Input
Amino acid sequence: MSWSDFLSRRLAERRGTSLWRNRQPHDGSDGRVLSTSAGQYLNFSSNDYLGLSQHPRIIAAWQQGTEQYGVGSGGSGHVTGYTAAHHTLEQQLAQWLGYSRALLFISGYAANQGVIAALMASEDRIIADRLSHASLIEAALHSPAQLRRFLHNDMSSLQQYLAKTSVGKTLVVTEGVFSMDGDCAPLAEIAQQAKSTASWLMVDDAHGIGIQGDEGRGSCWVQKVKPEILVITFGKAFGLSGAAVLCDEQTAEYLLQYARHLIYSTSMPPAQAVALSAAVRQIRAGDVLRQRLQNNIRYFRREARHLPFSLMDSETAIQPLIVGDNARCSALSQALKQKKVWVNAILPPTVPPNSARLRITLTASHTRHDIDLLLEALHGSGG
Output
């Protein structure tokens, strides 16, 4: 079979099905409103939970960083890409979250891949929550370690896997807030089980950091847990992009020597690091924004009880409405767009079979009137 035949066959298998993915360009979004050539939409698919992507102080910080450093880093952090701006941000993050060290990565995906690839060997095992993010599961599958997936947030399932002996190291992996279901991991119980078996715990808190806890310190802070590896990403509450790994001194030095995603990637632009430092300051002082977001979550959940869909048990900014059927879910998303409401359909294999959903995300930028318009559109589209 030729390359062209292979590609044509695989595309034909998916084209015309509800699994076919399209990218749609737009002209910009402030987290609340998304602008396209077809007009403006109320945006309920953004992860910009606090609206910081448009914060004037963060924008000004990026501009100032560009004036000082230019628009790119010019190399890997191990060559010429590690500036005083990167160093300052790493120290700021470590101090804020109570760790000895923080290491910057170009993305959350790269951070998860880099850490797991560097830490795990063939005699080791990874025990991951079944609903962990694709970057975590893919990293585990590609590592030489044995992967076992415990039932979602099920402590007896985790215990059964941990009770089995292993000749190597064990890494327990979970998210803090699950990106597709919006529920929270019982981190205190997971950490206790991991510690009792001398296992390490790795938590990806992409959707909890900045939103939960004192000064937005995240899911682990709320549950008084300090995992050996904490991954935070900057594409959600921070309003930017990139990621950091928080750990102790020895682990940080090890990752600097062995994490290939860190060693061989061009580092983030220094101006971005300057902007992220400003974002950390805004997050730490962001109690008003966090309270506004919580108020929006409570209001939506109270008013959404009468929708003709199943609302998942989530108290976070991620509010999934389970539709079930792929085609119906896609059609509903399109019907909402006709009413100038932007909510994306999430379909298998991203989520389990028969759990296609509208993944509604709320932000501090939304008004109560915005939420009312969303609810009216849902009532009118999904009977």
User: Anything to note?
Assistant: The two ends are 47 Å apart (CA to CA). The first helix runs from residue 3 to 14. The longest strand covers residues 318-324.
